[in-house]
Design a protein that fits this description.
Number of helices: 3
CATH architecture of one domain: 2-Layer Sandwich
Shape: globular
Structural class: alpha+beta
Strand order of the largest sheet: 1-4
Helix content: 10-25%
Distance between the termini: 50 Å
Radius of gyration: 14 Å
Largest sheet: 2 strands, antiparallel
CATH class of one domain: Alpha Beta
């Protein structure tokens, strides 16, 4: 049996596995709060990426976090560990209303 080979997103290598749809589907549906990053405050320290238990954060070209909302469960550990408080939480229902406008 040949093992499956997958390319990691954005060529980032970690000691944890990358998120995949499980038996319950995409886990982002569980979220109550959505993380939002203030790119002006973000220093690109990657602490949010390191602490994310769902591996739902990748770093963009400008070294700011990009949240994979299909897998982010909204635990907000990224917000708690951000040293410059560049990540804030928005209630999911309010975020959806803002997108509809």
């Amino acid at each position: 049996m040949t093992p499956l080979k997958r390319e990691p997103p954005n060529k980032r290598f970690t000691c944890i596995t990358y998120p995949e749809a499980g038996a319950m589907g995409l886990t982002g549906d569980w979220r109550i709060f959505r993380p939002v990053v203030d790119k002006e405050k973000c220093t690109g320290c990657q602490i949010c990426w390191m602490y994310c238990p769902d591996a739902a954060i990748t770093m963009g070209e400008d070294n700011t976090p990009i949240f994979d909302l299909e897998y982010c469960k909204g635990c907000m550990i990224c917000e708690t560990n951000c040293p410059v408080k560049a990540i804030s939480r928005v209630r999911e229902t309010e975020a959806e209303a803002a997108v509809e406008k």
